[in-house]
Inverse folding.
């Protein structure tokens, strides 16, 4: 299928490398279905490095099939277009949720914060251990886990998207680090990439969901990186006393300055979170209902 098989409905977003559209398939196996189409910006289509990165994203993403990861349905090129077609997530990203809660001064429920973080870790556990069609491990590290890349749909789906800067440690080695500065681990700030960068970013996201503010801040990037390296942040219960001490302890472990003291895998981190929320309260449908309440019925 080429891009001519998709009718563009509206622009969803635009970044430094690509733009994402809400589209409707007008032919082929997805005919009539609304999807998301991500394509390389026109100005970058002759940029070899940009094309390589975008193609690498498509190559990695198409091997991932998990309920908590946005599903890639079609990849390819058409004339001058290079594109990826994915499931369209009709909902909100977690960054929008945090911003809205902050605006109306309503805390995000603790059970919901833990449930969302658990779902995010399950997605990462799968990605970190994913294999290619030959059975060879892909060695994927997402590298850009953040609230803006995790989505809650109107029907309760919780999905991680945007593997645009994801890296395969097997292919590129451990020393190519990208991602948003506020979510980088101390090792990533130092220029070294391991799967721990994703676990650190989950802890930052959980902290934000609980407090509605970032843990590591500063007036300059240098100050932010200094705070990250020192694990210097305001304890969660100083900002929100009703957070259980065990949850604060979990975050403190995730932010330990010694990597050996932190969670060593997404699975281990998820197992520690699982008993801490009430499954009767922290559910996808309950979360989606609260999100609809926060934003109303508008798009």
């Amino acid at each position: 299928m080429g891009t001519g098989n998709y009718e563009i409905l509206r622009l969803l977003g635009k970044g430094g490398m690509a733009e994402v559209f809400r589209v409707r398939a007008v032919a082929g196996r997805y005919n009539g279905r609304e999807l998301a189409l991500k394509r390389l910006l026109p100005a970058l289509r002759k940029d070899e490095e940009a094309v390589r990165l975008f193609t690498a994203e498509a190559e990695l993403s198409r091997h991932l099939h998990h309920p908590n990861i946005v599903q890639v349905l079609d990849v390819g090129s058409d004339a001058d277009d290079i594109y990826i077609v994915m499931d369209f997530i009709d909902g909100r990203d977690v960054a929008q949720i945090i911003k809205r809660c902050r605006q109306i001064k309503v805390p995000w429920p603790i059970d919901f914060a833990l449930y969302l973080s658990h779902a995010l870790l399950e997605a990462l556990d799968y990605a970190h251990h994913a294999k290619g069609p030959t059975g060879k491990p892909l060695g994927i590290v997402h590298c850009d886990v953040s609230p803006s890349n995790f989505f809650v749909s109107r029907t309760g789906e919780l999905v991680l998207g945007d593997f645009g800067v994801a890296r395969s440690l097997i292919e590129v080695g451990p020393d190519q680090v990208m991602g948003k500065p506020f979510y980088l681990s101390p090792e990533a700030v130092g220029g070294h990439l391991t799967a721990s960068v994703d676990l650190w970013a989950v802890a930052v996201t959980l902290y934000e969901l609980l407090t509605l503010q970032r843990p590591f801040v500063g007036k300059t990037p240098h100050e932010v990186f200094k705070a990250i390296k020192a694990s210097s942040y305001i304890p969660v219960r100083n900002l929100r006393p009703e957070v259980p001490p065990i949850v604060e302890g979990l975050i403190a472990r995730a932010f330990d300055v010694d990597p050996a003291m932190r969670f060593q895998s997404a699975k281990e981190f998820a197992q520690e979170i699982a008993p801490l929320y009430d499954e009767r309260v922290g559910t996808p449908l309950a979360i989606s209902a609260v999100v609809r309440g926060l934003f109303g019925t508008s798009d």
Q: What stands out?
A: The chain has two domains: 3-87, 91-295. The CA atoms of residues 88 and 124 lie 20 Å apart.
